[in-house]
UniProtKB/TrEMBL annotation:
Transmembrane segments: none annotated. Pfam families: Acetyltransf_10. It comes from the Bacteria. Residues 5-147 form the N-acetyltransferase domain. InterPro entries: Acyl_CoA_acyltransferase (IPR016181), GNAT_dom (IPR000182). Coiled coil: none annotated. This is ElaA protein. It comes from Halolactibacillus miurensis. PROSITE patterns: GNAT (PS51186). GO terms for molecular function: acyltransferase activity, transferring groups other than amino-acyl groups.
Amino acid sequence: MFQVKQFDDLTTDTLYQLLKLRVDVFVVEQNCPYPEVDGIDQDCLHLFTEEEGVITSYCRLIPPGVMYHEPSIGRILVHPDYRKKVLGRQLVSEAIRVIKDEFNPSDIKIHAQVYLYDFYSSFGFEPVSEEYLEDGILHVDMILSNRDSKR
């Protein structure tokens, strides 16, 4: 079951788990030292699943005007012990649904790691930038146009 919470509605235990999981995946697992806590979490909605007290999947939903003109989905991850269970696909589908319900956008923008290009394309996201290197990892900006959504 998905949970969506404002930053102030997260318990300290849940916030700690979310931040630890993000660091474990994006900094440690991907061997990419960068400032994971970037100062915008307080403005975001936090979408996640939990099983027996363990956060199993997570992303943050960034309102329009905070990072981009469009709303955005960021920090998309599945706990390493829960991968290969289609949680990632379910998470992105739910994130798109929540963003459409909350913000009624014409577009949704993501800052995607290139190795996940086909995954995001399967939802209808299309590239809007050239590939670029950020923190040692190739990225591409992608847009899901509301009229093109394949939810």
